[in-house]
Amino acid sequence: MAANFLMHEKIWFDKYKYDDAERRYYEQINGPVASSSCQQSASTTSAAGPSGDQSELISRISSLELENRNLRSVVADLQHAISKLESRLSTLERSSTSHQSSAPLPTQHVTPMKKVEPLSASSKKVELPSAPPARKTAEPPAADEDEDDDDIDLFGSDDEEEDQEAAMVREERLRQYAEKKAKKPGLIAKSSILLDVKPWDDETDMAKMEECVRSIQMDGLVWGVSKLVPVGYGIKKLQIQCVVEDDKVGTDILEEEITKFEDYVQSVDIAAFNKI
After folding, report:
1. What backbone torsions phi and psi does residue 268 show, to the nearest 5 degrees?
2. Is there a contact between 191 and 273 (Cβ–Cβ < 8 Å)?
3. On the CB side of 200, how many CA atoms lie within 13 Å of its CA?
4. What contacts 255, CB < 8 A, 6 or more positions away?
5. Interatomic CA distance for residues 27 and 6, integer angstroms
6. Exposed (0-12), middle (13-18) or buried (19+): which is 195, by Cβ within 10 Å?
7. What does the alpha-carbon distance between residue 275 and residue 187 come to, in Å, rounded to a whole number?
8. Helix-strand-coil percent breakdown of the chain, rounded to 5?
9. Number of Cβ within a 10 Å radius of residue 257
């Protein structure tokens, strides 16, 4: 029964044979290439080991040797430059010592001249102030003599008459100056006023209202430009400018005269007030 069952089952018992045959087939086709690639991989892996480290060490040693050579050359240049500087310093020291040895000879001749000049200058400075004090002491007595002469005045009456005449002339000039000042007109203080004249409603005749305002005439009042300024809801106010003399026309009088036109004017406000 078991044998009959296995005969009817579809099991691949010989699969390993086919796998071996397939492996041998591909080895025959790609065998040499595969073997060479394996050898190359092995060689690269072996070279990547100790041989790779040796190459890095060799490159580092070579770079260090180059640096040492460069440093040696730099040190040699510095030594050469230092030797040159030392030679120059030695020459300069020799030249300075030679100059110092020759310099003291002229200095001995120059120092006496420097000592003589200050003495002469000092002697001159001492001699000069001796003269002015004598003059100053001599001048005060002259002033005292003049004062004494002024005290003894034999013609004192003539001086008093001259003083009276000068006082009269001064009074006359003051009187003339006061008369001229009184005749000269003084400055008139004026002001510029901007008035806001408001109507009752939008049906008010603004042209007639402006005509009524301008009909006000006073001494010291001059009307200027005017314009209509919208307020709202179709209502406009009259903004008019005038110039007044402060001593003759006041703002209260203007407001009273304008508000007399009750049919057109509701109120009057001062929008701006400037002194001229």
Report:
1. -130, 130
2. yes
3. 10
4. 268
5. 35
6. buried
7. 13
8. 70, 15, 15
9. 18
Closest Cα to residue 246, out of 202, 188, 180? 188
pLDDT in tens, 180-231: 877 766 677 899 999 999 999 989 999 999 999 999 998 889 999 999 999 9
Q: Are the C-beta atoms of 31 and 38 separated by less than 8 Å?
A: no
Nearest-angstrom CA–CA distance, 224 and 64: 104
Interval 89-100: pLDDT, tens: 999 988 888 766
pLDDT band per the 50, 70, 90 thresholds, residue 135: very low
Which pLDDT does position 27 carry in this prediction?
86
Alpha carbon 142 to chain centroid, angstroms:
66
Residue 213, exposed/middle/buried by CB under 10 A (0-12, 13-18, 19+)?
A: buried
Crossing angle for the helix pair 52-102 and 104-127, to the nearest 10 degrees: 60
